[in-house]
């Protein structure tokens, strides 16, 4: 029987007290939060998933290291930025 995913809500904010804004993604803060969960709070767990504005990033333990699976959105084609036209081969 697979172990259920351990999910927590995670919000990340800018550090500017004059303009506090929730940011959708901050990899360093996500990894740091996961380290606390996996190393201090739930040592029996091998992974943790967070509920965030940018989707459900999941962090997995690999021995002493951790890896972060970023949530992704489908790619969309955009036009060339005018000042790059002719500068980049696609």
Strand-pairing-aware structural class: alpha+beta
Could you estimate the helical fraction of the residues in percent?
10-25%
The profile of the biggest β sheet is:
4 strands, mixed
Strand order of the largest sheet: 1-4-5-6
Overall CATH architecture: Roll
Number of domains: 1
Write down the CATH topology.
Diaminopimelate Epimerase, Chain A, domain 1
Kindly provide the name of the CATH class.
Answer: Alpha Beta
Low-confidence stretches: none
Please tally the β strands and state the result: 6
Radius of gyration: 18 Å
Briefly say what this structure is:
The protein has 90 residues and is α+β, with helices and mostly antiparallel strands. Helices cover 17% and strands 24% of the residues.
Secondary structure blueprint with pairings:
Layout (H helix, E strand, L loop, with lengths): L6 E3 L2 E2 L8 E2 L3 H15 L5 E5 L6 E5 L2 E5 L21
